[in-house]
Amino acid sequence: MKKKISLLLCTLTVVFALAGCSGKDSGVEYDQATIEEATEFLISYCSTADDTTIEQWNSLSDEQLDIQMAQSGYPFTGDSFLSSMDAWQAGVDECGAYEGHGDFTYDASQTQLSVTTTAQFADREANLEVIYKADVRGNLHLDSLTVSGIYSMGEVLSKAGLNTLLGMGTVFCVLIIICVIISLLKYIPKLQEAFSRKNTAAPAPEISTAQASEAPAQSAPDQPAPETQAEAEDVTDDSELAAVIAAAIAASEEVPADGFIVRSIRRRKSNKWI
């Protein structure tokens, strides 16, 4: 019985020892006083910096920022310091003017240290989280600052309802537009048919310059028809034709040809002889 009890005690001792070792090695090493001082300075500076000060910091070069951070003595970098000020300004726009904060809570992991607290702003409270990351040598440097507003259940539900309404409204608007477009598709064949009719219509005849110069009289409105010209044509001088006609008439009437005189010859409109 004594052996069993002693074996149990030895087992518990080993377990607690391993747990203690694992807990010690699980987080990065840090000086709480140094980290607290750096965090207090960061919050204080961000809460008092105005737009002009932030603009001056943004106008500095990377080398100048690194020099300023090194002279401050805090574990800050230029990029992380500027991003922290921007995040603070966004939190002020969301939660109102800064009023104060509570005690810090430290949570260390193998690669970073998280410092959190609850801050009071004019409109609502917010959770402040400052993260320090460890480099290759194990030294901590500022990585980011986050200001998260604390909303009540009613505010959360109202925001969720508004987001849902906006999302569904956008979807329904898009669906209505699609329905309108689909309803207009029935007019496409008619438009195509109208355009095809215009394209297949016979073009007007083109008259070249040579044709226009050869027949100018045809376009003139006062030019008489060819038949009228034939009727008005004078054929009294055609003696041979008159002699033939006179001989034909004399033969048919059985009278001498000297008894007929042809005064004029006119062409009938019809080609048939009566």
TrEMBL record:
Pfam families: OAD_gamma (PF04277)
Annotated Low complexity bias: 210-227
Compartments it resides in: Cell membrane
The keyword Cytoplasm is annotated on this UniProt entry: no
Domain of life according to the entry: Bacteria
Protein name: OadG family protein
Span of the signal peptide: 1-19
Record keywords, A-Z: Cell membrane, Membrane, Signal, Transmembrane, Transmembrane helix
Region called Disordered, residue ranges: 205-236
Taxonomic lineage of the native organism: Bacteria, Bacillati, Bacillota, Clostridia, Lachnospirales
Cross-referenced InterPro entries: Na_pump_deCOase
Chief place of localization: membrane
Transmembrane intervals: 165-188
